[in-house]
Amino acid sequence: MSRTILVTGGGTGIGRAVAHHFADAGDEVIVTGRRPGPLDETAAGRPAVRPLACDHTDPAALTALLAELPERIDVLVNNAGGNTDLDADDATDLAAYARAFRANLDANLLSAALTTRALDDRLAAGGAVVHLGSIAADHGNGAYGAAKAGLASWNIGLSRTLGPRDITANVVSPGYIADTDFFRDQLTDERRDHLVAAAAVGRAGSPADIAGTVAFLASPAARHITGQVLNVNGGTRGTR
Ligand SMILES: NC(=O)c1ccc[n+]([C@@H]2O[C@H](COP(=O)([O-])OP(=O)(O)OC[C@H]3O[C@@H](n4cnc5c(N)ncnc54)[C@H](OP(=O)(O)O)[C@@H]3O)[C@@H](O)[C@H]2O)c1
What is its EC number (predicted)? Predict the structure, then answer.
């Protein structure tokens, strides 16, 4: 039976791969993000993919999105996010620090919490919520890592709330994934080589690696997995 899947941040990188994976499997997929252009590219040639612009940190935008969404969502993939420090300005005063810290919390933690809350009464029994965390939660990486660690903690409570409704809630925590817009143009060759060498498998992850794991967590095979963080990092060791 075809399911309805919402993939936030589905215009690029991991979100696009997740959207294509579900659509190719026969599901109806809605992709969201702030920029319509990448969303249209994700949907191009795939009638099962519907693009809708939305900023998932903005309660008003989310409320408006609800009017465009179906009454039933089987799988919610809270993928929107990223390290907002990569887009920050050069200001160094305390107000700038607060602004930058809040931007990471908003993009990676509040966005998932707000989206899940907005959709709460549309999440269907037998369904799944999957968030994109990060290895940064374990390695420590400023406000970005703290936001992803907070996401994992918040998900534990969510799993208890949704469990009695037969809905699972998990975090997929990637290591270094190539072929996304995550690093903008700021990943040096040296840093990339270091990230690849840190993985036991000696290669970068791909968006398809993550899409396969998200699909597994949303599948009948994973109904007793909830409240977990699943590391998908090629064997890169965490620090805790
Ligand atoms: N690539 C990696 O190595 C890596 C590693 C660990 C974790 N992750 C996580 O994986 C997820 C996907 O990242 P990616 O690697 O695929 O990078 P990406 O290509 O930059 O994708 C992030 C997507 O999120 C969307 N987005 C960001 N803020 C948003 C907001 N407020 N509202 C709606 N959409 C928003 C962006 O679209 P718009 O700008 O158009 O809104 C973009 O399409 C992120 O949560 C990231 O933290 C990535």
Answer: 1.-.-.-
Catalytic residue among 22, 144, 154, 176: 144
**How far is residue 4's CA from residue 158's CA, in Å, rounded to a whole number?**
21
Record the pTM.
Answer: 0.98
CATH number of the domain within which 227 lies: 3.40.50.720
Is 176 labeled as catalytic in the residue annotation?
A: no
Residues with beta carbon inside 6 Å of ligand 1?
8-9, 11-15, 32-35, 38, 55-57, 79-82, 107, 111, 132, 134, 174, 176-177, 180-182
* Residue 165 domain flag: yes
17 Cα: distance to centroid of ligand 1 (angstroms):
12
Q: Report DSSP letters for 80-138, one per residue.
A: ----GGGG--S--SHHHHHHHHHHHHIIIIIHHHHHHHHHGGGEEEEEEEEEE--THHH
151-202: per-residue pLDDT in tens? 999 999 999 999 999 999 999 999 999 999 999 999 999 999 999 999 999 9
Range of the domain at 112: 4-232
Ligand 1 centroid, distance to 9 Cα (angstroms): 6
